[in-house]
Amino acid sequence: MTAPFQPYSMHVGVQEARDMLATLLPAPGAETIPLAAARGRMLAADLQARVSHPSATESALDGVAAREVDTVNASATSPVRLRVVGESRAGVPFSGAVGPGECVRIYTGAPLPAGVDAICPVEQLTDEGPDHVLLARPASPADVRHEGGDFRAGETILTAGTLLTPPRVALAAALGHAEVPVRRRLRVALLSTGDEVIEPGHPLGPGQVYDSNRYGLQAMLEECGCDVLALGHAPDSPEALQEAIAQAGGADVLLTSGGVSMGRYDFMRDLLIERGRVAFWKVRMRPGGPALLGGWQGLPVFGLPGNPVSSLVVFHVIVRPVLTGQPVGTLRLRAGTPFRGLPDKTAFWRGVLRGGEVWDYGKQGSGVLRSLSEANALVVVPEGGAVQVGEDVEVILL
Ligand code: AMP
Ligand code: MG
């Protein structure tokens, strides 16, 4: 196949690759779903508090509610004696007022009656008959939770674009929302390519390899909250690829693995040039250099390299942040080993966390599959840089 000339970008930077992919993806639509189904979804609109929390000024402890001024001299050797005039339970407040020298028994989350401003915990109390208690410590205003101290009705607490992690799902419930507006899931078609690639569960012939990318990428897409349209596998021929790509209709983006390199049987790029379009080929990174971005009749196509390590790293560094709208999280750690740099590529070396430092995993070849499980970090060495032992280095946790 000889491809017609078509201009496209070559050797783009990592951020440029993300930006180009982002511009090809459709704008995310929105839908409203029950909160119980919202974990892992992205908010499509701000969420306001419908109530204040706490909804009333309340006790943080079990004990008695009293006036702080009445109790400041209380100690174990000289306890203060107060008259108990009632009780305030969570859900059943004390309706009267509390005067000087008086208190009410109170429990965690119960509203504070009028007239008191402090709590003495139950561990510091001794009953003296049915109507009196002795306080071995002053009642403390620090154990009062004030109405709206956490959030106030009307306040915007979660903003559009926020990922709904389990704590945020709980927070949305506390704000009073039974349903939440979220971004529609992206529908991602997934295709493995390669004559040698076969399904696990079948005997492996000479030169064959099990399709690990299909499983790894599907799992990562699901983790990103995408709907996966599994297209399975296509052999290395332009016709077979074309037929497989035609099955991706209705998807928001097609993700392929394999067939984007320089080999004689790598057809993806020429096929896109001939029948679709290419936006970029090759990213200045290692592993993962040969990644390809293009389009096929309005469908964005992202071609990941076939090497499982490369496809994982490109997915993690370029595809995932675009699909989720969440930047790649990095932290800085001390290098326990040196990390070399590359003159014209950002290096993402597999690393292992050890005693607060990050160490070189060792075998950095893209074919070392066990590193996908044994390494737990990617060490980012910028183009032209290098890292010595003891220096701080940027790390992506896997
Ligand atoms: P390619 O990018 O097609 O040149 O493939 C590069 C290397 O990755 C070759 O060793 C392939 O056998 C291997 N490979 C390609 N696709 C897969 C896959 N889906 N699962 C596992 N290994 C693969
Ligand atoms: Mg191949």
Put the structure in a nutshell.
The protein has 398 residues and is of the alpha/beta class.
Overall SS class: alpha/beta
Q: Oligomerization state of this entry? A: single chain
Nearest-angstrom radius of gyration? 31 Å
Strand arrangement within the widest β-sheet reads 1-19-21-22-18-14-17
Give the beta-strand count: 27
CATH topology of the largest domain: Molybdenum Cofactor Biosythetic Enzyme, Chain A
Proportion of residues in extended strands = 25-35%
Overall shape: it is elongated
Kindly describe this structure.
The strands form seven sheets. This protein has a seven-stranded mixed beta sheet with strand order 1-19-21-22-18-14-17, sandwiched between helices. Strands 8-5-7-6-10-9 form a six-stranded mixed beta sheet. 37% of the residues are buried. The protein has 398 residues and is of the alpha/beta class. The chain has helices spanning 14-24, 68-71, 166-175, 212-223, 238-246, 268-275, 308-324, 371-374; strands spanning 9-12, 30-34, 47-48, 58-59, 63-66, 80-88, 102-106, 118-121, 125-128, 132-135, 144-145, 156-158, 179-183, 187-193, 197-198, 209-210, 227-234, 253-257, 277-283, 285-286, 292-296, 299-304, 330-335, 346-354, 357-360, 377-381, 392-397. The chain has four domains: 9-26 and 186-324, Molybdenum Cofactor Biosythetic Enzyme, Chain A, CATH 3.40.980.10; 31-53 and 149-183, Molybdopterin biosynthesis moea protein, domain 2, CATH 3.90.105; 58-145, Molybdopterin biosynthesis moeA protein, domain 3; 330-397, MoeA, C-terminal, domain IV (Beta-clip). α1 (14-24) packs across α7. Helices cover 19% and strands 32% of the residues. A hairpin with a 2-residue loop joins β24 (346-354) and β25. The radius of gyration is 31 Å and the shape is elongated. It binds adenosine monophosphate (AMP) and magnesium ion. The site of adenosine monophosphate has 19 residues, from α4.
